[in-house]
Amino acid sequence: MNENMRIVGHSLAWITILMWGMTFISTKLLLEVISPVEILFMRFLIGFIALCLLSPLQLKLTEWKHEWYFAAAGVCGVTLYFLLENIALTYTFASNVGVIVSIVPFFTALLAHFVLDGEKLSRRFFAGFAVALVGVFLISFNGNYHFQLNPFGDLLAVLAAAVWAIYSVLMKKIGSFPYGTVQATRKIFFYGLLFMLPILVISGFKPNWSSLMQPLPLFHLLFLGLGASALCFVTWNSAVKLLGAVKTSVYIYVVPVITVVASSIILKEKITVAVVIGTLLALVGLILSEYKFDIVRSKKESNIGSRIEAEG
Fold first, then answer.
1. pLDDT band at 177 (very low <50, low <70, confident <90, very high)
2. Alpha helix (H) ranges present in the chain?
Protein backbone atom coordinates (compact mmCIF):
# COMPACT_ATOMS: atom_id res chain seq x y z
CA MET A 1 0.00 0.00 0.00
CA ASN A 2 1.35 3.45 -0.89
CA GLU A 3 1.72 6.34 1.54
CA ASN A 4 -1.32 8.23 0.22
CA MET A 5 -3.64 5.30 0.92
CA ARG A 6 -2.24 4.95 4.44
CA ILE A 7 -2.92 8.63 5.07
CA VAL A 8 -6.49 8.20 3.83
CA GLY A 9 -6.94 5.19 6.11
CA HIS A 10 -5.67 7.05 9.18
CA SER A 11 -7.80 10.08 8.33
CA LEU A 12 -10.94 7.93 8.09
CA ALA A 13 -10.12 6.30 11.43
CA TRP A 14 -9.71 9.73 13.08
CA ILE A 15 -13.03 10.96 11.64
CA THR A 16 -14.77 7.87 13.00
CA ILE A 17 -13.27 8.08 16.47
CA LEU A 18 -13.97 11.81 16.80
CA MET A 19 -17.67 11.16 16.19
CA TRP A 20 -17.89 7.93 18.19
CA GLY A 21 -16.32 9.69 21.17
CA MET A 22 -19.30 12.06 21.25
CA THR A 23 -21.98 9.36 20.97
CA PHE A 24 -21.95 8.78 24.73
CA ILE A 25 -23.20 12.33 25.29
CA SER A 26 -26.01 11.96 22.75
CA THR A 27 -26.98 8.57 24.17
CA LYS A 28 -26.93 9.90 27.73
CA LEU A 29 -29.29 12.74 26.79
CA LEU A 30 -31.60 10.47 24.79
CA LEU A 31 -31.90 8.01 27.69
CA GLU A 32 -34.05 10.64 29.39
CA VAL A 33 -36.61 10.17 26.58
CA ILE A 34 -36.40 6.58 25.27
CA SER A 35 -34.92 3.22 26.32
CA PRO A 36 -31.46 1.91 25.32
CA VAL A 37 -32.95 -0.73 22.98
CA GLU A 38 -35.13 1.89 21.29
CA ILE A 39 -32.12 4.17 20.80
CA LEU A 40 -30.15 1.28 19.30
CA PHE A 41 -32.89 0.23 16.88
CA MET A 42 -33.82 3.75 15.75
CA ARG A 43 -30.25 4.95 15.18
CA PHE A 44 -29.44 1.98 12.94
CA LEU A 45 -32.79 2.20 11.17
CA ILE A 46 -32.04 5.83 10.32
CA GLY A 47 -28.54 4.81 9.23
CA PHE A 48 -29.90 1.99 7.07
CA ILE A 49 -32.40 4.32 5.34
CA ALA A 50 -29.64 6.88 4.73
CA LEU A 51 -27.37 4.25 3.14
CA CYS A 52 -30.25 3.01 0.98
CA LEU A 53 -30.79 6.54 -0.32
CA LEU A 54 -27.06 7.03 -0.84
CA SER A 55 -26.61 3.72 -2.68
CA PRO A 56 -30.00 2.35 -3.78
CA LEU A 57 -28.62 -0.35 -6.10
CA GLN A 58 -28.94 -3.88 -4.77
CA LEU A 59 -25.71 -5.62 -3.83
CA LYS A 60 -25.27 -8.64 -6.11
CA LEU A 61 -23.25 -11.39 -4.49
CA THR A 62 -20.46 -13.01 -6.47
CA GLU A 63 -20.49 -15.98 -4.07
CA TRP A 64 -23.35 -17.11 -1.81
CA LYS A 65 -21.00 -17.85 1.08
CA HIS A 66 -20.37 -14.10 1.34
CA GLU A 67 -23.90 -13.78 2.72
CA TRP A 68 -22.76 -15.56 5.88
CA TYR A 69 -20.00 -13.03 6.42
CA PHE A 70 -22.45 -10.12 6.14
CA ALA A 71 -24.91 -11.80 8.51
CA ALA A 72 -22.15 -12.51 11.07
CA ALA A 73 -20.87 -8.93 10.83
CA GLY A 74 -24.41 -7.61 11.37
CA VAL A 75 -24.93 -9.78 14.43
CA CYS A 76 -21.53 -8.94 15.95
CA GLY A 77 -20.97 -5.30 15.01
CA VAL A 78 -24.55 -4.03 15.35
CA THR A 79 -26.79 -6.29 17.44
CA LEU A 80 -24.59 -8.08 19.97
CA TYR A 81 -21.91 -5.44 20.63
CA PHE A 82 -24.27 -2.59 21.45
CA LEU A 83 -26.73 -4.77 23.36
CA LEU A 84 -23.98 -6.32 25.48
CA GLU A 85 -22.49 -2.89 26.19
CA ASN A 86 -25.86 -1.33 27.09
CA ILE A 87 -26.87 -4.24 29.32
CA ALA A 88 -23.44 -4.21 30.97
CA LEU A 89 -24.01 -0.56 31.93
CA THR A 90 -27.11 -1.59 33.89
CA TYR A 91 -25.14 -4.11 36.00
CA THR A 92 -21.77 -2.42 36.50
CA PHE A 93 -20.19 1.02 36.57
CA ALA A 94 -19.70 3.03 33.38
CA SER A 95 -16.03 3.41 34.34
CA ASN A 96 -15.63 -0.38 34.45
CA VAL A 97 -17.21 -0.71 31.00
CA GLY A 98 -14.99 2.07 29.65
CA VAL A 99 -11.82 0.32 30.75
CA ILE A 100 -12.91 -3.18 29.76
CA VAL A 101 -14.14 -2.22 26.27
CA SER A 102 -10.76 -0.56 25.66
CA ILE A 103 -9.17 -4.03 25.49
CA VAL A 104 -10.77 -4.42 22.05
CA PRO A 105 -7.41 -3.88 20.27
CA PHE A 106 -5.89 -6.70 22.33
CA PHE A 107 -8.65 -9.16 21.38
CA THR A 108 -8.52 -7.97 17.77
CA ALA A 109 -4.76 -8.44 17.62
CA LEU A 110 -4.93 -11.97 19.05
CA LEU A 111 -7.72 -13.03 16.70
CA ALA A 112 -6.17 -11.39 13.65
CA HIS A 113 -2.80 -12.97 14.44
CA PHE A 114 -4.26 -16.44 13.98
CA VAL A 115 -6.89 -15.71 11.31
CA LEU A 116 -5.55 -13.00 8.99
CA ASP A 117 -2.39 -12.76 6.92
CA GLY A 118 -0.06 -9.83 7.58
CA GLU A 119 -1.54 -9.02 11.04
CA LYS A 120 1.20 -10.33 13.32
CA LEU A 121 1.89 -9.29 16.91
CA SER A 122 5.06 -7.78 18.34
CA ARG A 123 6.37 -6.41 21.63
CA ARG A 124 5.74 -2.84 20.54
CA PHE A 125 2.01 -3.50 20.15
CA PHE A 126 1.79 -4.84 23.72
CA ALA A 127 3.80 -1.86 25.02
CA GLY A 128 1.38 0.56 23.33
CA PHE A 129 -1.58 -1.42 24.63
CA ALA A 130 -0.29 -1.34 28.23
CA VAL A 131 0.40 2.42 28.16
CA ALA A 132 -2.96 3.22 26.59
CA LEU A 133 -4.86 0.97 29.03
CA VAL A 134 -3.34 2.82 31.99
CA GLY A 135 -4.42 6.08 30.37
CA VAL A 136 -7.97 4.81 29.81
CA PHE A 137 -8.09 3.66 33.45
CA LEU A 138 -7.15 7.14 34.67
CA ILE A 139 -9.71 8.77 32.38
CA SER A 140 -12.53 6.39 33.29
CA PHE A 141 -12.06 6.62 37.04
CA ASN A 142 -11.13 10.31 37.02
CA GLY A 143 -9.00 10.14 40.16
CA ASN A 144 -11.28 7.69 42.00
CA TYR A 145 -9.28 4.47 42.14
CA HIS A 146 -11.87 2.22 43.77
CA PHE A 147 -12.27 -0.36 41.04
CA GLN A 148 -15.18 -2.55 42.11
CA LEU A 149 -15.81 -5.82 40.35
CA ASN A 150 -19.36 -6.63 39.30
CA PRO A 151 -18.89 -10.11 37.79
CA PHE A 152 -21.97 -10.29 35.57
CA GLY A 153 -21.79 -6.75 34.19
CA ASP A 154 -18.01 -6.87 33.75
CA LEU A 155 -18.28 -10.22 31.96
CA LEU A 156 -20.80 -8.71 29.54
CA ALA A 157 -18.37 -5.85 28.85
CA VAL A 158 -15.59 -8.37 28.12
CA LEU A 159 -17.93 -10.22 25.75
CA ALA A 160 -18.75 -6.91 24.04
CA ALA A 161 -15.03 -6.28 23.46
CA ALA A 162 -14.56 -9.81 22.09
CA VAL A 163 -17.57 -9.44 19.78
CA TRP A 164 -16.24 -6.17 18.33
CA ALA A 165 -12.88 -7.87 17.72
CA ILE A 166 -14.69 -10.56 15.72
CA TYR A 167 -16.50 -7.83 13.79
CA SER A 168 -13.19 -6.10 12.96
CA VAL A 169 -11.70 -9.32 11.61
CA LEU A 170 -14.86 -10.04 9.61
CA MET A 171 -14.70 -6.55 8.09
CA LYS A 172 -11.11 -7.10 7.02
CA LYS A 173 -12.27 -10.25 5.25
CA ILE A 174 -15.33 -8.52 3.73
CA GLY A 175 -13.03 -5.73 2.56
CA SER A 176 -11.37 -8.23 0.22
CA PHE A 177 -14.70 -8.96 -1.48
CA PRO A 178 -15.52 -7.08 -4.74
CA TYR A 179 -18.22 -4.85 -3.20
CA GLY A 180 -18.51 -1.15 -2.44
CA THR A 181 -18.10 -0.14 1.20
CA VAL A 182 -21.45 1.69 1.35
CA GLN A 183 -23.40 -1.26 -0.06
CA ALA A 184 -21.56 -3.71 2.22
CA THR A 185 -22.26 -1.56 5.29
CA ARG A 186 -25.92 -1.27 4.29
CA LYS A 187 -26.20 -5.05 4.13
CA ILE A 188 -24.55 -5.36 7.55
CA PHE A 189 -27.06 -2.87 8.99
CA PHE A 190 -29.90 -4.91 7.48
CA TYR A 191 -28.81 -8.04 9.32
CA GLY A 192 -28.16 -6.08 12.51
CA LEU A 193 -31.72 -4.70 12.46
CA LEU A 194 -33.15 -8.09 11.52
CA PHE A 195 -31.60 -9.84 14.53
CA MET A 196 -32.66 -6.94 16.74
CA LEU A 197 -36.37 -7.48 16.05
CA PRO A 198 -36.92 -10.37 18.53
CA ILE A 199 -35.35 -8.24 21.28
CA LEU A 200 -37.69 -5.35 20.42
CA VAL A 201 -40.68 -7.68 20.65
CA ILE A 202 -39.58 -8.95 24.06
CA SER A 203 -38.66 -5.56 25.51
CA GLY A 204 -41.51 -3.65 23.88
CA PHE A 205 -41.15 -0.79 21.41
CA LYS A 206 -43.07 2.21 22.66
CA PRO A 207 -40.93 5.33 22.21
CA ASN A 208 -42.15 8.65 23.54
CA TRP A 209 -42.69 10.25 20.12
CA SER A 210 -43.85 13.64 21.40
CA SER A 211 -40.69 14.10 23.46
CA LEU A 212 -38.48 12.56 20.80
CA MET A 213 -39.63 15.03 18.17
CA GLN A 214 -38.46 18.00 20.22
CA PRO A 215 -35.49 19.79 18.59
CA LEU A 216 -32.73 18.65 20.98
CA PRO A 217 -33.63 14.92 21.25
CA LEU A 218 -34.29 14.81 17.51
CA PHE A 219 -30.89 16.36 16.80
CA HIS A 220 -29.11 13.76 18.96
CA LEU A 221 -31.04 10.89 17.38
CA LEU A 222 -30.17 12.11 13.88
CA PHE A 223 -26.54 12.53 14.92
CA LEU A 224 -26.46 8.92 16.12
CA GLY A 225 -28.26 7.63 13.03
CA LEU A 226 -26.70 9.68 10.24
CA GLY A 227 -23.31 10.48 11.74
CA ALA A 228 -22.30 7.83 14.26
CA SER A 229 -23.98 4.95 12.38
CA ALA A 230 -24.31 5.56 8.62
CA LEU A 231 -21.22 7.73 8.13
CA CYS A 232 -18.94 6.28 10.80
CA PHE A 233 -19.49 2.62 9.97
CA VAL A 234 -18.61 3.41 6.35
CA THR A 235 -15.48 5.34 7.35
CA TRP A 236 -14.47 2.70 9.92
CA ASN A 237 -15.02 -0.18 7.52
CA SER A 238 -13.01 1.69 4.88
CA ALA A 239 -10.18 2.27 7.38
CA VAL A 240 -10.12 -1.45 8.27
CA LYS A 241 -9.98 -2.26 4.58
CA LEU A 242 -7.02 0.09 4.05
CA LEU A 243 -5.05 -0.32 7.29
CA GLY A 244 -6.04 -3.72 8.60
CA ALA A 245 -8.06 -4.83 11.62
CA VAL A 246 -5.33 -4.43 14.25
CA LYS A 247 -3.95 -1.10 13.10
CA THR A 248 -7.43 0.43 12.95
CA SER A 249 -8.59 -1.01 16.27
CA VAL A 250 -5.93 0.85 18.28
CA TYR A 251 -7.78 4.11 17.56
CA ILE A 252 -10.33 2.92 20.13
CA TYR A 253 -7.82 4.10 22.75
CA VAL A 254 -8.77 7.68 21.84
CA VAL A 255 -12.56 7.29 22.33
CA PRO A 256 -12.45 8.09 26.09
CA VAL A 257 -10.28 11.13 25.34
CA ILE A 258 -12.84 12.54 22.89
CA THR A 259 -15.66 11.76 25.31
CA VAL A 260 -13.97 13.62 28.17
CA VAL A 261 -13.21 16.70 26.07
CA ALA A 262 -16.73 16.80 24.60
CA SER A 263 -18.28 16.30 28.05
CA SER A 264 -16.31 19.20 29.47
CA ILE A 265 -17.47 21.47 26.63
CA ILE A 266 -21.09 20.35 26.30
CA LEU A 267 -21.97 19.00 29.75
CA LYS A 268 -19.56 21.29 31.65
CA GLU A 269 -17.93 18.33 33.37
CA LYS A 270 -14.64 19.02 35.17
CA ILE A 271 -11.32 17.82 33.73
CA THR A 272 -8.95 16.70 36.49
CA VAL A 273 -5.19 16.16 36.53
CA ALA A 274 -5.80 12.38 36.34
CA VAL A 275 -7.80 12.86 33.15
CA VAL A 276 -5.07 15.01 31.58
CA ILE A 277 -2.39 12.41 32.40
CA GLY A 278 -4.68 9.63 31.19
CA THR A 279 -5.31 11.48 27.93
CA LEU A 280 -1.59 11.85 27.27
CA LEU A 281 -0.97 8.16 28.03
CA ALA A 282 -3.81 7.06 25.74
CA LEU A 283 -2.35 9.14 22.89
CA VAL A 284 1.18 7.84 23.58
CA GLY A 285 -0.16 4.29 23.52
CA LEU A 286 -1.83 4.94 20.18
CA ILE A 287 1.34 6.44 18.68
CA LEU A 288 3.48 3.63 20.06
CA SER A 289 1.22 0.97 18.56
CA GLU A 290 0.99 2.75 15.21
CA TYR A 291 4.74 3.43 15.00
CA LYS A 292 5.48 -0.25 15.55
CA PHE A 293 3.61 -1.31 12.47
CA ASP A 294 5.28 1.35 10.35
CA ILE A 295 8.72 0.15 11.45
CA VAL A 296 7.87 -3.47 10.67
CA ARG A 297 6.55 -2.51 7.26
CA SER A 298 9.54 -0.28 6.46
CA LYS A 299 12.01 -3.03 7.36
CA LYS A 300 10.05 -5.58 5.37
CA GLU A 301 9.85 -3.30 2.32
CA SER A 302 13.55 -2.48 2.67
CA ASN A 303 14.48 -6.19 2.80
CA ILE A 304 12.35 -6.93 -0.24
CA GLY A 305 13.97 -4.03 -2.11
CA SER A 306 17.44 -5.25 -1.18
CA ARG A 307 16.69 -8.77 -2.40
CA ILE A 308 15.35 -7.45 -5.70
CA GLU A 309 18.48 -5.32 -6.21
CA ALA A 310 20.72 -8.28 -5.33
CA GLU A 311 18.93 -10.60 -7.69
CA GLY A 312 19.02 -7.95 -10.43
1. very high
2. 3-20, 23-30, 36-54, 66-74, 81-91, 94-101, 104-115, 123-141, 151-174, 181-203, 209-212, 215-222, 232-243, 245-249, 255-266, 273-311
